[in-house]
Input
Amino acid sequence: MRAAAPAARTSASAGRPARAAAPARTPRGARARIGADRSPARPRVGGRLDAVTQRRLSQARVGNPLTRVRVLSIAVIATLALFSGRLVYVQAYQGETLAAQALEGRMNTTTIPAVRGEITDADGNVLATSVTRYDVFADQVLIADWTHTVDGARVGGPVEAARLLAPIFGEPEAELAAKLSGTSKYKMLERDMAPETWDAIKELGISGMFAEQAPRRSYPAGTTGGNLIGFVGAEGTGMAGLEYALDEQLAGVAGSRTYERGLGGHAIPTGVQSSKAAVPGTDVRTTLRMDLQWKAQAAIDAQVAKMGASGGFVVVMDVKTGEIYALADSGAMDPNKPTGFGGSKAISTIFDPGSTAKIVTMAAALETGVATPTSQYTVPYNYTTSNGQTFKDSHEHGDEPWTLTGILAESSNTGTVMVGEQIPKQVRHDYLTKFGFGEKTGIELAGEERGLLADADAWDGRTQYTVLFGQGMAATALQATNVFATMANGGVRNTPHLVAGTTGADGVYTPSPLADPVQAVSPETAGTVLKMMESAVLEGTGENAEIAGYRVAGKTGTAQIPGADGKLDAYLASFVGVAPVDDPRLAVGVFIENPTATEYAKFGGVSAAPVFSDVTSFALQQLGVVPSGSTPELYPTTW
Output
């Protein structure tokens, strides 16, 4: 009867919702197995999920927070361990290297310029010296942050800095403010500023204003000796004259300063610093006498203008030592404001020496026994040599009864050829080289020319004779003058020199080493030629070279040179002489290019001899040379 009860309750409840029947009890073990097999019901496709299923699905998607913490912790610890290991590695193994690299990046080295040596004349008068100047620049970044107090208010920046600086710089405030504005840490404002001007800027206390010491060259004598002294360029190196030729000695050795800098680029006071002192350059004492150099330049400038010439040179040298007392060029350059040619044309311009070279022919004739001072010749206006070459004198004349001395005194080309053709060609060449033609003198100046002197075998049928009177060859003014100095020095040729000695950084003066002298001809021959040249002044073409109270020997010269159009239609007038003859001290050469003022201006006796007299007279008095104490005993010029 018990088994039919449920069916009856179901039947009785027909027509209304049935009440859920209580679940039947299940044994504990069976429930455990059922629970273990139970899994979330799968949603039906297109159907709705019940609340339990939704809750279960939601719980399944959310991760465990503890797991995430553990993972992140492990990652952080690993990262820290990596960085710590790297730090330990860097400190233990790379610390010193990296620190050194960092320090190197902060270090800065600046050059300390060496003070360039001075150049002085023989008496110590300064011809070239270095003066302190400053190149002033601005750090625009620092100036932008700079302020100071004015009437209780803080003002600053580029505008205020320009207001203070404008009177010092001599610029409008607006223009200066524009230069001070920007982001440059090195804006150059002015070069070559005087020390007192920079001191005035420093007193303002404007952050961002800086200066670099920049020595500048000053030439107190200006144009006097300017072409000899030369000048230096913007980088402080010699560009001409002695400044160029002796640049290595004058320049010295630059020093340096190394320091640790901060972010602003300025030295850290407590940082690493070191310095190497600069070594000053060597001082150079020349042989120049500046009063005499001034006189020579003034005289040649005046005569060039008077004669309508294109230029000129004057050489004054000591015959016993080869010292150059003056080496003047017309229109000399001012080294303080250098323009154009910066060297001396007296050593770089070559020309036919002309009749001044006749004294070499006379010396060769005497030395070889071809003639004596009184040998007699009948000298025609025209003379034709055995090979058919015809020569003539500068002035037309009949047959003249001249001695060898007379031929020199009258500067006769035909007479010189008559004498010289008795001397073998190679011997002629040998005597020219003995007196220094065809080679540099060795003076301490750059740009010296050696001149032109072909080998004797290369002389053609005419040149072998023209060299006897100074044509068919070329020389400088210094070479031509040194021939006369050699003759006045007993036939001994010295090397002309311009540097007397040097004084090093240690203050020790060292005389310049001199080249060995060369005996060109015997003292007897040299003395005879000197006496013959005295006749050329007193009785020949050089009468305008006379000096009251002093015996003078010399020779005029006139040589053809290229004119402005390149044609050989211009002349170089010259006179080279010695004084005093009884005790020779000076050899002076005067050379004037293309004098055109008069018909006779081309002759050395007209244009050059008066300058010789003027300059040599001044030099003898300046040097304290006593007047001649003897009267000349001249050789006869005619027979």
